[in-house]
Structure formats: structure tokens, C-alpha cells
Amino acid sequence: MKRLQDMRKLTVRQKALVEAYVANGGNLTQAANEAGYAEGNSARVTAWKTMKTPHVQQYLMQVTAEAFATHAAMAVHRVASLAKSAKSEYVQLEASKDLLDRAGFKPVDRSQIQVAGDIRVHIDLG
Predict the structure, then answer these.
(1) Rounded distance, CA 30 to CA 124, Å?
(2) Residue 126, exposed/middle/buried by CB under 10 A (0-12, 13-18, 19+)?
(3) d(CA 33, CA 82)
(4) How many CB atoms lie within 10 A of CB 76?
(5) Considering only CA atoms, which of 11, 34, 15, 36 is closest in space to residue 24?
(6) What residues does each domain of the chain span?
(7) Fewer C-beta within 10 Å: the chain N or C terminus?
């Protein structure tokens, strides 16, 4: 319920700022202009302060997650296409490894060493 309340706090301009920011790839000045903030240095500062508020950051995370979800299918298709038909065998290999990693077939990153037995140290100072 708190999330819905925080979303209600957003103004139309704040929503527009966040959506423009995500859509243009993170250019805050351009997003501020598109969202209707006055042009110039003060607009950038105001937009920057706006982006730092918790409820705007929460909305930014939501919009970013939605953008990832929207573009994920395209990215998977691209990597699969590279794995299948890239001219470079190295690119094919790396794309194939990436697909396997993301499917849960990642190789073990480190080896585990176990030592069994007793270790005794005797120091005779006399």
C-alpha cells in the first residue's frame, strides 16, 4: 500500500522527467527540457534535485525495470543470432557462453579445497 501512496505523490512533471530520462538514455538536461522545466542551468539543478527524492527514485526504478523487460526479448534474440551466425567464431563462442550462463549453466568460478586431518604445532622454548 505504501508504494501506491508514494506513486500518488508524483506530479505530472516528475513523471514526465523520469520517463524522458529513461527514454533518452540518461540525459538529464534533455529530459528536463522535455518535461517542461525552464531551460538553462537552473532547470538542470531543479531536475537533479527532483531525481534525488525517494519517491521519484522509486518511480525511476519502476520505469527502468519496465524498460528492461520490454527490451529483454530483443536482447535475447540478438545474442542468439550472434551465437548462430556471427562471422567471427570468437563472437559466436562468447555469445553462446553468455546464453548458457544466463540459462543457469555457468561453470564453477572457483575450486574448493578441503584439508582433512589434524595439524599439531609443538613449540619447545626450554
Answers:
(1) 75
(2) exposed
(3) 38
(4) 12
(5) 34
(6) 2-102
(7) C
